[in-house]
Amino acid sequence: VQLQASGGGLVQAGGSLRLSCVASGRTSSGYIMGWFRQAPGKEREFVSAVSWNGINTDYADSVKGRFTISRDYAKNTLYLQMNSLKPEDTGVYYCAASRYAGPSRTLGNYKYWGQGTQVTVSS
């Protein structure tokens, strides 16, 4: 599975962005998928994940209520709608896929990773 993330950019605090992650090479329908982010000088951290059937989702406490993860099986695409953005949301956002049983917050459970897309939120 190859993953290609896009949709990042520069936005003011309070604004919105929608990230996309297109999967190719193999259908992603049987995979859980997730978003992680990495700020400069910090470790990569979990943001959100969704189960293979799209029913179960999980969010980091820091983004709960502001971000929404979804997937379009027909387009083989994962989305992350980000609203009410804050400067602390700044970082490179990565999408990932895994055959794990359910939405996972653990980086090591994800086998496939996209290249990342930069999100910068100005104050």
Number of helical segments with 4 or more residues: 0
- What share of residues is helical? under 10%
Q: Report the mean per-residue pLDDT as an integer.
A: 94
Q: Which ranges are low-confidence, i.e. pLDDT below 50, for 5 or more consecutive residues?
A: none
Oligomer: single chain
Instruction: Using the alpha-carbon principal axes, give the shape.
Output: globular
What structural category arises from helix and sheet content? mainly beta
What is the chain-wise order of helices and strands? EEEEEEEEEEE
Q: Distance between the terminal alpha carbons, to the nearest Å?
A: 37 Å
What can be said about the biggest beta sheet? 7 strands, mixed
Total beta strands: 11
Percent of sequence in beta strands: over 45%
Write down the Rg.
13 Å
Explain what you see.
The chain has 123 residues and is mainly beta. 0% of the residues lie in helices and 50% in strands. It contains no helices and eleven strands. The model has no long low-confidence stretch (mean pLDDT 94).
What is the strand and helix layout of this fold?
Layout: E1 2-6, E2 9-12, E3 17-24, E4 32-38, E5 45-50, E6 57-59, E7 67-72, E8 77-82, E9 91-98, E10 112-113, E11 117-122
Parallel strand pairs: 2-11
Antiparallel strand pairs: 1-3, 3-8, 4-5, 4-9, 5-6, 7-8, 9-10, 9-11
